[in-house]
């Protein structure tokens, strides 16, 4: 799931990426172009039984991302705004910050 929070007075959007706990055995990281393609661990949130990662991104842009589960399995977010081939035979999810 992806939640976006647009600010009236800032040129950025708070984006929260969320993956259900049931999709993960031990760990999950988000890997994205806005992170220079370096995995960033997602935080386990017991109350919502999910893993979350929150970031502020520039408005009016588009970013590629995927999730890496247990350091071996790639998954996409079914709630991504679009998908784009990544050159490795799979697709990356796209998140848009256009309002």
TrEMBL record:
Enzyme Commission number(s) from the entry: 2.4.1.18
Cross-referenced InterPro entries: Ig-like_fold (IPR013783), Ig_E-set (IPR014756)
Alphabetical UniProt keywords: Glycosyltransferase, Kinase, Transferase
Lineage top rank: taxon: Bacteria
Keyword NADP attributed: no
This protein's record includes keyword Cytoplasm: no
Any GO MF annotation of the entry: kinase activity
Name of the molecule in the record: 1,4-alpha-glucan branching enzyme
Organism: Vibrio orientalis CIP 102891 = ATCC 33934
